[in-house]
Write a structure and sequence with these properties.
This protein has 291 residues and is of the alpha/beta class. The protein is built from twelve helices and eight strands. The protein has helices at 21-33, 53-67, 82-94, 112-125, 136-139, 145-151, 167-177, 191-196, 211-222, 226-242, 250-258, 278-288; strands at 4-8, 38-41, 73-76, 99-103, 130-134, 157-162, 182-185, 201-204.
Length: 291
């Protein structure tokens, strides 16, 4: 349903943690100008864990309004409460999002049957297309391929953002699900490998900083031009690594501030990037040619 480079957009904030709407507008325009294929609003990188419910719905709706139909918008609506996930997903649909991205329930560690029933309940309750999101390193919960295959039978579950770090996992899911579900990479260091293995794109942190290059890399890989995609990805490799020297979105928010696109505002318990990491992120930006 979606293809290419999908930015996991930061939520720009003022120093006091309030949402910076002018910077948000700048970022949306930047991604449209530079070829980003879709915007994910209020995902992990958008600090979904520290925005309250009203803010969450507001940012999704505002990104849709700012995009004005020029680029698809996917709302991050996952929660560890099924009721809350339904409520947020309904909010995304009513706000005009093209799809919703739902992370696996974190902290409470449901069984595979619990995961199936959770995602099924959201899909049954809200008709919007839905993309599952598996990131066990952050949630302590792993959505296994056999459960993905069951969920792929549900018509409005259309995709999976897989961030387990395993290309083999992606291949197994594709073998089990065929064309029933699109798979997207959720770890930038693996983007190229996953697309060449049959994935349909990446939901990317790096795309915040280098949107044009990420679009070009994903497009080349999707077209089967591995050599060209590898050349571009080599320029991005340091960003893929150094945007994670501290917990996401700490480094990417600092990088965006260095580009003059937004301030460094971030909400506790996240704190600004430690000074001793500034140079490594700066060098990665220079290697990518974005400074």
């Amino acid at each position: 349903m979606f293809r290419g480079s999908m930015v996991a957009l930061i939520t720009p904030m003022h120093d006091d943690g309030s949402i910076d709407e002018k910077a948000l507008q700048r970022l949306v325009e930047l991604h449209i100008e530079q070829g980003t294929d879709a915007i994910v609003a209020v995902g992990t990188t958008g600090e979904s864990a520290t925005l309250d419910y009203d803010e969450h719905c507001y940012v999704m709706r505002r990104v849709v309004e700012m995009a004005g139909g020029r680029i698809p918008v996917i709302g991050g609506t996952g929660a560890n409460s099924t009721w809350e996930a339904i409520k947020l997903t309904r909010c995304a649909m009513e706000g005009g999002c093209d799809a919703a991205l739902l992370v696996t329930p974190y902290y409470n560690k449901p069984t595979q049957e619990g995961l199936y029933q959770h995602f099924k309940a959201v899909a049954d309750a809200v008709a919007i297309p839905q993309i599952l999101y598996n990131v066990p390193s952050r949630t302590a919960c792993d959505l296994l391929p056999e459960t993905v295959a069951r969920l792929a039978e549900i018509p409005n579950i259309v995709g999976l953002k897989e961030a387990s770090g395993s290309a083999e996992r992606v291949r197994e899911i594709l073998e089990r699900c065929g064309e029933q579900i699109d798979v997207y990479c959720g770890e930038d260091v693996k983007d190229l490998e996953v697309i060449l293995a049959g994935g349909k794109g990446a939901i990317s942190v790096t795309a915040n900083v280098a949107p044009k290059l990420m679009h070009e890399m994903c497009s080349a890989a999707l077209a089967g031009n591995a050599e060209q995609a590898e050349r571009i990805d080599a320029r991005l490799a340091a960003l893929h690594k150094n945007l994670f020297v501290e917990t996401n979105p700490i480094p990417v928010k600092w990088a965006i501030s260095r580009l003059g696109l937004a301030g460094q505002g971030i909400r506790l318990p996240m704190t600004p990037l430690s000074e001793h990491h500034h140079e490594s992120v700066l060098q990665a930006m220079k290697l990518a040619g974005v400074l």
